[in-house]
Design brief:
This protein is mainly beta and 461 residues long. The protein has three helices and 32 strands. It is globular. It starts with 14 loop residues before the first strand and ends with a helix. Belongs to the WD repeat coronin family.
Length: 461
């Protein structure tokens, strides 16, 4: 009788642990819009999620520690005139977030320390260039202030947020139909796209050239997603001809046949892949699913190894993924997801069980830090660079708040004129109001504490 040899991996026993009720964000009205984005974005300071809004589009930004029931009158970011479809935090500034909307614009916002005190209606910069709704926004991983957006006009625009200008355009000659997903390579030299014409393309955006292309990576008609993974490979999720969900791994130099193709189940939700380059684990989260599957990618056949699955009772409306620098290393947490329910956001920690409390160097190699490796000008000039790495051994210490500086030129003058004409308050007036609000809140908290102390004294007597 032959014995089956179990593959050795330190991630075989990774398990998911949902947060307790008091560590969740309760009573949030998650957007009902039918769009295949995560609807949630997270960084070490804030969690942002797209919410229902009457008469326009809005998303909620909460400080990470502000868990529990969310006040129904909590201020939102509400400058869009139509529903918000996608949001993304800047990897080099934890206070800057971009949003794409059905109103055909991309807006970049700066969130103050401690979160919003008043509704935020005025973005730092509005990026106008798409003629149809904008469903995808992705920041460049290593270049400062470079943002990519993809719209339902089948156009990809790359923006220099510092000037508010579109510096690169990939028109409908590159993508003749709706773009389903866009992902940057780790050094930001290439992008990988999936399209409704059933093709996955690898593109050099600065030259506008298609480096490699694969027709029908999955035989089904439903949307395909594609992301870069380690060693020049890409991972795709899609559907078979029989509507079974599939995951496939491809070598970008030989796209004729997949390195690995696995069928998963017959659910209808699109699988959103999240790849961790530090551990080579890819997590698959399906909208409408109640589970998260995870696989390990290795350099030897069969290349894609199923690890395990986290399951819960309730299905997910969306999912946010925390960058590695926001994790708790003393608890051996290797990933954290923020699962959106209909009226709740629930953190789920992925943990490797270890007995020791010491820093586990094999689980936490140096990871991408918050500093940009290149300026926008250097990247546009042809330079590439991997992310600047930091060690998490002594814990992550966030840098001081950085102001997003935008040279808007004529646009600023037009805005000022419009503001004066409409009688809307200037940014200085808004800042003064916010400061007054902070002082009032501090006074209210102090009064509440005094009242509690007084009640305790009365009870003691």
């Amino acid at each position: 009788m032959s014995r089956q040899v179990v593959r050795s991996s330190k991630f075989r026993h990774v398990f998911g642990q949902p947060a307790k009720a008091d560590q969740c964000y309760e009573d949030v009205r998650v957007s009902q819009t039918t769009w295949d984005s995560g609807f949630c974005a997270v960084n070490p300071k804030f969690v942002a999620l797209i919410c229902e809004a009457s008469g326009g589009g809005a998303f909620l930004v909460l400080p990470l520690g502000k868990t529990g029931r969310v006040d129904k009158n909590v201020p939102t970011v509400c400058g869009h005139t139509a529903p918000v479809l996608d949001i993304a935090w800047c990897p080099h500034n934890d206070h800057v977030i971009a949003s794409g909307s059905e109103d055909c614009t991309v807006m970049v916002w700066e969130i103050p320390d401690g979160g919003l005190m008043l509704p935020l209606r005025e973005p730092v910069v509005t990026l106008e260039g798409h003629t149809k709704r904008v469903g995808i926004v992705v920041w460049h991983p290593t270049a400062q202030n470079v943002l990519l957006s993809a719209g339902c006009d089948n156009v990809i625009l790359v923006w220099d947020v510092g000037t508010g200008a579109a510096v690169l355009t990939l028109g409908s000659d590159v993508h003749p139909d709706t773009i389903y997903s866009v992902d940057w390579s780790r050094d930001g030299a290439l992008i990988c796209t999936s399209c409704r014409d059933k093709r996955v393309r690898i593109i050099e955006p600065r030259k506008g050239t298609i480096v490699a292309e694969k027709d029908r990576p999955h035989e089904g008609t439903r949307p395909v997603r594609a992301v870069f993974v380690s060693d020049g490979k890409i991972l795709t999720t899609g559907f078979s001809r029989m509507s079974e969900r599939q995951v496939a791994l491809w070598d970008t130099k030989h796209l004729e046949e997949p390195l690995s193709l696995q069928e998963l189940d017959t659910s209808s939700g699109v699988l959103l892949p999240f790849f961790d380059p530090d551990t080579n684990i890819v997590y698959l989260c399906g909208k409408g699913d109640s589970s998260i599957r995870y696989f390990e990618i290795t350099s030897e056949a069969p290349f894609l190894h199923y690890l395990s699955m986290f399951s819960s009772k309730e299905s997910q409306r969306g999912m946010g993924y925390m960058p590695k620098r926001g994790l708790e290393v003393n608890k051996c947490e290797i990933a954290r997801f923020y699962k959106l329910h209909e009226r709740r956001c629930e953190p789920i920690a992925m943990t490797v069980p270890r007995k020791s409390d010491l820093f586990q160097e094999d689980l936490y190699p140096p990871t991408a830090g918050p500093d940009a490796a290149l300026t926008a000008e250097e990247w546009l000039g042809g330079r590439d660079a991997g992310p600047l790495l930091i060690s998490l051994k002594d814990g992550y210490v966030p840098p001081k708040s950085r102001e997003l500086r935008v040279n808007r030129g004529l646009d600023t003058g037009r805005r000022k004129t419009a503001q004066e004409a409409s009688g809307s308050p200037s940014s200085d007036a808004v800042s003064r109001l916010e400061e007054e609000m902070r002082k009032l809140q501090a006074t209210v908290q102090e009064l509440q504490q005094r009242l509690e102390r007084l009640e305790e004294t009365v009870q003691a007597k």
